[in-house]
Each structure stands twice: as structure tokens, then as C-alpha cells.
């Protein structure tokens, strides 16, 4: 008697039809968006950094006026003096005394406005004087006499009315004898301006006023 293996009939399972869901979309990778953001940020950083470098470079390219006169807004500043002088001052007893010879610069500040009063603060402690060798000269802590005959010291603050001129006095150490030029820098904020006024002073220097007889 022959025997045979029982083979069950194959069963096919019906497949569910594919249904497209209009509300379901396959999420797209966000790599492109991230790359775009990163590139934008890098370009912005490069732009800001480049602008900052240009600003620093332009600030280093300082222009020094070889003319004794510079005008900013309604203010005209003319540098006079620029020579060695014995500076008169009042001692603690109110007597007129004279210093040893120092280098004195007398800026003339003229108000060119016809309607506006200018408040001015002296440059005695804020002016900067340098030479072509890189020497920087210190201020001399003395308040010069505006009018020794009247025992009138120079003021720290003053009002310059329209059309009027004020004479300031800035006293420095003696420059070295063989300096080719001196650079004088005056902050314009002392008369309400902006930035700095820069003068190039070359020898021979005239004798400054108020020299002792």
C-alpha cells in the first residue's frame, strides 16, 4: 500500500487596496534649510567683520592739517604760538610767577555762528603732542595767566559768543631739538564737536607769547 504526504492547499490572503491619503505627506529632510541658515549666518559674520576692519583701517589713516587753521561746524581753530616760553602763573599767595621754559601752544577758538553761543572747555589736560620719533610730550600742570597785568588766570570753562574769539594755552614738555614735525591732537568734544582736530606743526617754531623779559 502506497502512502503519500498530505500537502495542504495554499491559502492566498487578499491584500488591502492602496489608499492615497491626501493629508499625509512624507516628511522631507531639512538638511537644505540648515545649510542655507548656516551659509547666511557665515556671510553675515564676514560682512560685519569686514566692515569693522575697514573702520579700524580708516581710523588709522589720520589726516593731519598742515594749515594752522581748521574749521568744524561753526568753530574755527587756529594754532598759534608753538614755541618755548616762560609761562606766567599765580602762586598760592596770589603773586605772579614764571615757570621754566616750556613748549606753549595757543589755540585760537573763534565762533563763526551769528546766533549760537559755544561752551568751550580748555584743552590744557586733553591735548596730545607727539613727534616723528614717536615721543609723546606730557602736559605741564600749570594754569597760565590770561592777563598777568590784571592777575587773571585762564579759565577752564568759558562761553564764546557769536563772532568772538577765545585764546587757550596748552603747555607741554620741551620737544627734542631735531624733531622734524609735531602732531597736535585736540578733541572736538570740548566745543560740542565730534572726533579730533589734528595739526602738523613744523619748525622753526615762533616764540610763544608771555615770555618773561
Overall description:
- This protein is of the alpha+beta class.
- It is 14% helix and 34% strand.
- It has one helix spanning 31-60; strands spanning 69-72, 75-90, 96-111, 118-121, 128-131, 136-137, 145-147, 152-153, 157-160, 165-167, 170-172, 182-187, 196-201.
- Strands 1, 2, 3, 10 and 11 form a 5-stranded antiparallel sheet that branches.
- The longest helix has 30 residues, at 31-60.
- Residues 50-60 and 207-213 have low confidence and may be disordered.
Q: Return the average pLDDT rounded to an integer.
A: 79
What is the CA-based Rg, rounded?
A: 39 Å
Q: How far is the first residue's CA from the last residue's CA?
A: 156 Å
Indicate the overall shape: extended
Number of helices: 1
Structural class: alpha+beta
Number of separate strands: 13
Instruction: Report the portion of residues in β strands.
Output: 25-35%
Biggest beta-sheet profile:
5 strands, antiparallel
Uncertain segments of ≥5 residues (pLDDT<50)? 50-60, 207-213
Order of helices and strands: HEEEEEEEEEEEEE
* Helix coverage percent: 10-25%
Amino acid at each position: 500500500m502506497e502512502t503519500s504526504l498530505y500537502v495542504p492547499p495554499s491559502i492566498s490572503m487578499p491584500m488591502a487596496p492602496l489608499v492615497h491619503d491626501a493629508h499625509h505627506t512624507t516628511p522631507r529632510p531639512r538638511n537644505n534649510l540648515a545649510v542655507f541658515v548656516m551659509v547666511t549666518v557665515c556671510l553675515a559674520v564676514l560682512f560685519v567683520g569686514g566692515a569693522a576692519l575697514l573702520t579700524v583701517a580708516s581710523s588709522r589713516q589720520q589726516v593731519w592739517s598742515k594749515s594752522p587753521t581748521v574749521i568744524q561746524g561753526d568753530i574755527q581753530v587756529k594754532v598759534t604760538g608753538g614755541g618755548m616760553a616762560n609761562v606766567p602763573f599765580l602762586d598760592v599767595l596770589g603773586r605772579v610767577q614764571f615757570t621754566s621754559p616750556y613748549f606753549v601752544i595757543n589755540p585760537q577758538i573763534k565762533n563763526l555762528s551769528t546766533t549760537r553761543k559755544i561752551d568751550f572747555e580748555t584743552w590744557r589736560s586733553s591735548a596730545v603732542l607727539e613727534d616723528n620719533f614717536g615721543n609723546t610730550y606730557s602736559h605741564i600742570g600749570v594754569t597760565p595767566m590770561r592777563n598777568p597785568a590784571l592777575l587773571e588766570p585762564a579759565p577752564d570753562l568759558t562761553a564764546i559768543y557769536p563772532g568772538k574769539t577765545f585764546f587757550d594755552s596748552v603747555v607741554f614738555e620741551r620737544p627734542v631739538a631735531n624733531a622734524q614735525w609735531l602732531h597736535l591732537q585736540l578733541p572736538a568734544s570740548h566745543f560740542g564737536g565730534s572726533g579730533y582736530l589734528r595739526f602738523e606743526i613744523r619748525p622753526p617754531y615762533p616764540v610763544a607769547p608771555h615770555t618773561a623779559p
